[in-house]
Design brief:
globular, 10 helices, 240 residues, disordered N terminus, two-stranded parallel sheet, single chain, alpha/beta, six-stranded parallel beta sheet
């Protein structure tokens, strides 16, 4: 059955997995367009939904991952595409005490077999401290920053176009507030999983209290600002 499945799969160069469209899809599309101009085939798939619909269709040489903390992160993928090269785009590299442990690559597969993309030398140092070989660390800057440069910035809507699409007043000041205060909304089951993964219950309680207080204060602030009449208050929980 395994051999028959492989026969059905199409040979390809790259499968590019993205997790959050607002954070990653623009970069994925630009990278794919550049690679296709160079004769390299690219399939962009959303993780996890689209991946499971296409897992038996492709046999890529390279797989770009949105993250890779442990082998369990993408275990079905590793099982199906065990001969591929895995490149971790590493879309989360700004940490605090509540998530650094959970989001640091660890385990034999992530440390020894995955190539990791680093925005900065400080993150590259964190990878080295985990025992990741120098040849598996690719320091390249933040890819989304390039979208502010020509020609990419001309692709995005102008302020006037955005105002028409979302019925905003172009003459007002726009305040864009992306936040989610995630520790306020985690279920108890999620909290227990974090503790099992090494996060302390005391730190979690501090972060939950901080997010609860911060969210309440921000809601009061938003109410006051929205009542002034001279601003458009745009709230979009990250990462959308």
């Amino acid at each position: 059955a395994g051999s028959e499945r492989l026969i059905e799969m199409e040979e390809g160069d790259i499968v590019y997995l993205y997790e959050h469209a607002a954070r990653e899809l623009d970069v994925a599309c630009v990278v794919a367009a550049i690679l296709r101009q160079r004769g390299i085939s690219v399939e962009i798939l959303q993780w996890p939904t689209s991946f499971f619909q296409a897992i038996g269709k492709f046999r890529p040489k390279v797989v770009a991952l949105p993250f890779c903390y442990t082998e369990r992160s993408f275990l079905p993928l590793f099982q199906y595409w065990s001969n591929s090269i895995f490149f971790n785009m590493t879309w989360e590299q700004l940490f605090y005490g509540g998530n650094q442990l959970a989001k640091t690559p660890r385990g034999k597969f992530s440390v020894q077999h995955v190539i990791h993309h680093a925005w900065s030398e400080s993150y590259a140092e964190l990878l080295r401290a985990q025992g990741i070989p120098e040849g598996h660390i690719f320091t390249n800057g933040h890819p989304a920053y390039a979208l502010y440069d020509a020609p990419y910035r001309h692709y995005f809507l102008s302020r006037e176009d955005i105002a028409r699409r979302y019925e905003l007043d172009v003459a007002k000041k726009w305040i864009f507030f992306p936040e989610n205060y995630n520790w306020t909304f985690y279920t108890q089951a999620s909290i227990e999983r974090f503790i099992e993964a090494g996060q302390s219950a005391e730190d979690i309680e501090v972060m939950r209290q901080f997010c609860n207080l911060s969210l309440a204060e921000v809601l009061r602030w938003c109410r006051d600002v929205a009542g002034r009449g001279n601003v458009e208050l745009i709230i979009r929980p990250r990462p959308a």
